[in-house]
Structure formats: structure tokens, C-alpha cells
Amino acid sequence: MISAPKLREDLELLTGMDDRPLVYDPVTGAYHRVTRAAQLVLTQLDGTRSREELIALLSDGGGRRDEVEDFLTRLEESGLLVGAERQDKDASGKRIRTSMFMPRIVLTRSLPVLLEPLARVLRRWNARALVAVAGLGALAGFSLGAFTVFTSPPSFERIGGAAFVVAALLQLVAVLVHESAHALVAQVLKVPVRGLGVALLFYFLPLAYVDRTDAYRLRGRGGRIVLALAGLMSDGWLTGVSAVVALTADGFVQHTAAFLLVFQLIGMVINLNPLLPSDGYSAIETATGLVDPRGRAFTLLGALIVPKPLPNYLANLALKARLAYLAYGLVCAAYVGVLALSMISTLPMLVQAVMAAAGR
After folding, report:
1. pLDDT per residue over 292-331, tens digit each?
2. Domains parsed from the chain with CATH numbers
3. Does residue 145 contact residue 242 with C-beta atoms inside 8 Å?
4. For residue range 227-255, what is the model confidence (pLDDT) as tens digits?
5. pTM of the full predicted structure?
6. Per-residue pLDDT at 86
7. What confidence category does residue 169 fall into, taking pLDDT thresholds of 50, 70 and 90?
């Protein structure tokens, strides 16, 4: 243990999301959330007092000695104190990062440079008007896309054909546009993304992503909500374009647009999934200020179904917060129900498509 704890001078103490105190570590690129009480403790870590002197001062002779001791230990383990072990290389600079379920590969870090000219122009416009136009256009696009698919579904006999393949390739381009939309909003808000890359869910399923960790610096919720939904809004506009093409074209172009619509609507459902760390989940978490809404909601609902003691952080929840978590749990249940009914209703078409593909 460090005898005279001193906070590293290269750390940045700032106030970020929802006015929460944050400590930014430029070595690892990580943000550490701290309480306001802990923020005051950090100001005392100048290396002039021994560990025992600090504990005595901050615990004020009361029963908080163990809390202060634990806080100092966690600071040391996180590498935030002078003399503590830390990474010699900026972790955010690595091209490949591994995790238990989702290794990530950074493809480019040049998006901020590429997007800044457009971001500079957009900053001159009224932000509320831009968001309103983008949001309403996305809703109209998704609505028109759903109407087109359900009234004029694609010919499933053509699965695996040229139109299907071209639509799949165009969907990959749409995914790139989706992630670039997140990056553009971040650039407009002056919290540039760190990179664009590919993540392999369970080391198998490729997913595009942009690293928008620095969104922690955005204090207001409005900007973070728009940042979370930017990809969906761009998807809505592209879906609207595909729907217009599918309704007005014919032949190969019409078949391609119809398949592309199916891909885009499936993408919408995935991005609104409240059970995964999706764009929709991020937006709800940001808008409500709830902490781990998925986990807490399921714990509360489970306790209602099978009565059991709740952990302290849930047992002492205010009634308003408890109802909010329960409402989120019901939204998740409704999402699963609607998704299940949709899959059941489309099952005959899927069987038809498989049989058609097998008979080719």
C-alpha cells in the first residue's frame, strides 16, 4: 500500500453526465464515476499526508474509517495514485482489444477529421429544428417501410439470388452510415468518437460500432439521447428511400429494394431491443437517469413473482424509482411478446422461403 497517497497529476477532474463528478485517466482512456463526497476526498490526496493521517482526517474519528480505507485501496488498484501500477501504453490506442464475449478491432480513427467540416456547418443551424426534422423523417421512413413490406412483401423464391445478395451488400453500407451518424452527432457536440471498428459478438457475429466513450463529458441528457438515437434516425431516412424505390420501381431494382427493406426493419427491431445494450436501451437509460434498468427491473419483477428479500440498493428505493424500474420491466415483456407474435405470424412465409430455396 502507498504510504502517502497522491493523485496523479495527469488525471482530469471534471463534471460530466447529469452533473456527476468524473475522473478521466488519459493513460487508459477510462472515465471513473465518483460521488461528490469522494470528489472532496480527492482534493486531499496531495502526497503531504500519510495514509493513516488521511484516514483519521477523512473519517473524522467516526465509523467511516473502513469506507475511507476501501476508497483509497480502490484508487490504488485503479492506478490513479502516484506509484500505483498502471499501463505504460494508452489502452485506447490499441487496434485490437479482447473481452470475454466481444473482441473489438478498430478500423479507423480518422472519422473526427473527416466529419469536422460537415459538423462545423451543422453547428450553425438550430439544433432543435435539426433533431425534429431528423426524428420526424425517421418515423415517416420506418412507417412507410413497414407498410410497404406488409402490403407488398418481397418474393421469397428469390432468396439467394442476385437481388438478395445486392440488398445484403447495401445493408452493410447502411450499417456504416448508421455508425457514422453516431460519430457525426458526437463531432457536432465536440466529443469526437475514438474510432470506428468491428466487434465480434461471441467471437462470431460481426457488429459495426463507434467508440463514443467520451460522451460521458456531455452534461445534459438531450445531447446524449440524440447521440444514442442518431443511428436509428439515419436508418429511418434510408428505409424511407428504400420504400419509395420499392413502390415505384420494377424488376431487379424493385426486388432489391424489397429485400433491403426487410433487412432495415429487422435492424430497427434489433436497435430498439430493450434487453440488449442497444441504441434504444442507451436512450432509455439516458432519458430516465435509471441505473442498470434491465437488471434492476428483472430483479424487482422476480421478487413480485417469487417473494424474496431484495438487495439493500433495491429495498430502499423510493416509490417513484421503483415504479419506473417496474415499468421498464413491463416494456421488456411487451417487446418480447410482440416479437414472438411477429415471428409466429411470419413462420408460414419463412417455411415457404426455405422450401423455395431448397427447390432451386
Report:
1. 888 888 888 888 888 888 887 788 788 888 888 888 888 8
2. 12-91 (1.10.10), 104-277 (no CATH), 290-360 (no CATH)
3. yes
4. 999 999 999 999 999 999 999 998 899 99
5. 0.80
6. 60
7. very high
CA torsion sign for 228, 233, 235, 236 is: positive
Q: Torsions phi, psi of 252, nearest 5?
A: -60, -40
Lowest mean pLDDT among 68-72, 106-110, 167-171: 68-72
The size of the chain, in residues, is 360
Q: Please give the Cα distance from 108 to 184 (Å, whole number).
A: 15
Q: How high is the pLDDT of residue 229? A: 94
Separation of alpha carbons 179 and 176, rounded Å: 5
What is the 3 state secondary structure string of the chain? CCCCCEECCCCEEEECHHHCEEEEECCCCEEEECCHHHHHHHCCCECCCCHHHHHHHHHCCCCCHHHHHHHHHHHHHCCCECCCCCCCCCHHHCCEECCCCCCEEEEECCHHHHHHHHHHHHCCCCHHHHHHHHHHHHHHHHHHHHHHHHHCCCCHHHCCCHHHHHHHHHHHHHHHHHHHHHHHHHHHCCCCCCCEEEEEECCCEEEEEECCHHHHHCCCHHHHHHHHHHHHHHHHHHHHHHHHHHHHCCHHHHHHHHHHHHHHHHHHHHHCCCCCCCHHHHHHHHHHCCCCHHHHHHHHHHHHHCCCCCCHHHHCCCHHHHHHHHHHHHHHHHHHHHHHHHHHHHHHHHHHHHHHHHCC
